[in-house]
Amino acid sequence: MLNFFIYEAKVALLLAVFYICYRVLLSHETFHRLNRIVLTGSVIVSFLLPFCVLTVHRTVMVPAGVAVSDMSSEPIPSVLPQDPQDLTAFAAETAANAPQGGWLLTLLAFIYFAGVAFCLARIVVELMQVFRIIRSGEILPQQDGLSLVVIDRDLAPFSWMRWIVLSREDYESGNRHIREHERAHIALGHARDLLVMNVLSAMQW
Questions:
Q1: pLDDT digits over 139-171, tens only?
Q2: How far is residue 10 CA from its own chain's centroid?
Q3: Distance CA 35, CA 169 (A)
Q4: HSE toward the beta carbon, residue 126, CA cutoff 13 A
Q5: What are the respective helix, strand and coil percentages of the chain, to the nearest 5?
Q6: 168 within 8 A of 152, measured Cβ to Cβ
């Protein structure tokens, strides 16, 4: 469990570094597709990079006249007692002297996974609310495979997967700018990106 928390700390550090770089270098750019690729790729790399292990090879200089076989010929002394009763006493003493931090890791693990469960539950609730809104509206299939969902109440336009949700007032106004704007979100896959980001963010609550 300690290794898992170390991994999460590394991921959090990488996410912070990538986000700072994005804010400094790309946040003011209008290349939306590039920004999307950079943001999504940064998150994925942040979760994968801690698994990479860097191996450093170092050359060890052996003094002249000393053979390598001579260095490993000495017997390794045993620190374990040979008598079974002594061995049992040795194990009990070792366990008693071991750091008693297991309960703290258990508590941290409980708090962490409770937070993850809460964040994931919130995502599920938000998705249910979105689908409830879609089911409550008038669905108008479009020729490009998308569907307009007209809601009989004041609602800010938004898109989700293949649905474009807008109020009756926005629909009857004939404002094509709203529809084209939401179509661009769907074409760029923003809903999928948002879902993936939310799930990964739950791991870093």
A1: 999 888 899 999 988 888 999 989 999 998 888
A2: 11
A3: 33
A4: 12
A5: 60, 10, 30
A6: yes
